[in-house]
Design brief:
Elements (H helix, E strand, L loop, with lengths): L1 E5 L6 E5 L5 E3 L14 H6 L10 E2 L15 E5 L3 H6 L9 E4 L11 E3 L6 E2 L2 E7 L15 E8 L2 E2 H5 L5 H5 L11 E2 L1 H4 L6 E6 L2 E7 L7 H11 L7 E3 L22 E6 L3 E9 L4
Parallel strand pairs: 5-15, 7-17
Antiparallel strand pairs: 1-2, 1-12, 2-3, 3-4, 5-6, 8-11, 9-10, 9-15, 13-14, 13-16, 16-17
C-alpha cells in the first residue's frame, strides 16, 4: 500500500492512495501514520479497510512528509562507490553515519537556500522507515523491522559541511533540507529494495541516474548495523546514501542550487518529488 499525509504543514491528516491513484482520507480510522501505527501488522491491517467508504481528497491538496513525528533522520554517507569517487573520498570499510537535525518537509514544499549559502546541493536517496523497535537485530531479520520506504532529498550545503569545521551535520540540517515523500510504500509493494532505479533533474537536466543495486551497504546491512549503536525506534528514518551526479561532483566545476531552480527527483515505485528553490528571507 501507499500511505500519505495531507493538509497544511503541522496539521497533516493520514491517507492512502487507492487503486485509481486517488487520495483517501484515513483520519476516521487512525490518528496519524506515526509511532506504533507504523508497526507492519498495523499497516497491514489497514489493507482490509473498505477503500470506497473513505472520503476522497482533492489530489491538488498539499502532501506533507509521509511519516508523522519522525524521531531521527539517520543518514549514511558515501554509500555508493561512484559518489565516493566524485567526492574524492575512499569507499568506507563500515557505514559512515551522521544525523540530519532538521524537520522533514513535504515532497513539493520549497527548498530555502540558507542565508549566506554558496554551495547548496542535491542528493536523491532511498529512505527506510523503521516500524518496530530494533536493537541488535541480525541481517537475516532486519527487514522485518521496516515499515516501508520513501524518497528523501538529502539537501546539503557543502561549504557548511566541509569547510566549517568538518561536522557534516552543519551542512545537512538547514531548514527545508529534508524533503520527504510523497508516499510511504509498504515492503510488500516495493519488493526487493536493492533493485530500484533513481534519478534527479535540475531545471530539466538529468544529473543523477542510478540504482539501489550499487549501494555499498544494502538496506538489511544498514538496519542491522545501526541497531548495534542505538535502539532504532518506530518513526526513525534511515536515508541510505546517494548515487553519483551531485552538484559537488560536476566537471569542470561544481554546480550549486540558486533561487528559482527547480529540482525534480524520483525512485522507482516510490513516486516523485518537485521543489522550487527560494532565497532565504528573515521572518
Amino acid at each position: 500500500m501507499k500511505f500519505v499525509r495531507f493538509g497544511r504543514s503541522g496539521a497533516e491528516k493520514p491517507g492512502l492512495i487507492d487503486r485509481r491513484g486517488r487520495i483517501r482520507d484515513l483520519s476516521g480510522k487512525i490518528d496519524d501514520i506515526a509511532g506504533y501505527r507504523l508497526a507492519p501488522r498495523k499497516l497491514n491491517a489497514l489493507e482490509r479497510t473498505r477503500q470506497r467508504d473513505l472520503p476522497i481528497v482533492d489530489n491538488r491538496t498539499r502532501l506533507g512528509p509521509p511519516v508523522g513525528n519522525i524521531g531521527r533522520i539517520i543518514c549514511i554517507g558515501l554509500n555508493y562507490a561512484d559518489h565516493a569517487a566524485e567526492s574524492g573520498l575512499k569507499v568506507p570499510d563500515e557505514p559512515v553515519m551522521f544525523m540530519k537535525a532538521c524537520a522533514a518537509t513535504g515532497p513539493r514544499d520549497p527548498i530555502i537556500i540558507p542565508k549566506g549559502s554558496k554551495k547548496t546541493d542535491w542528493e536523491v536517496e532511498l529512505g527506510v522507515v523503521i516500524g518496530l523497535e530494533a536493537q541488535h537485530v541480525s541481517k537475516a531479520r532486519a527487514l522485518d523491522y521496516v515499515a516501508g520506504y520513501t524518497i528523501v532529498n538529502d539537501v546539503s550545503e557543502r561549504e557548511f559541511q566541509i569547510e566549517r569545521g568538518g561536522q557534516w551535520v552543519k551542512g545537512k540540517s538547514c531548514d527545508t533540507f529534508a524533503p520527504m515523500g510523497p508516499y510511504l510504500v509498504t515492503p510488500d509493494e516495493v519488493g526487493n529494495p536493492q533493485r530500484l532505479g533513481m534519478w534527479l533533474d535540475v531545471n530539466g537536466k538529468r544529473f543523477q541516474d542510478g540504482s539501489t543495486r550499487t549501494m555499498v551497504f544494502d538496506v538489511k546491512t544498514l538496519v542491522s548495523y545501526l541497531s548495534r549503536f542505538m535502539t532504532l525506534q518506530p518513526g526513525d528514518v534511515i536515508s541510505t546514501g546517494t548515487p553519483p551526479g551531485v552538484g559537488l561532483g560536476q566537471k569542470p566545476k561544481p554546480i550549486y542550487l540558486k533561487a528559482g531552480d527547480v529540482v525534480s527527483l524520483g525512485i522507482e515505485g516510490l513516486g516523485t518529488q518537485r521543489q522550487v528553490c527560494k532565497a532565504f528571507k528573515a521572518s
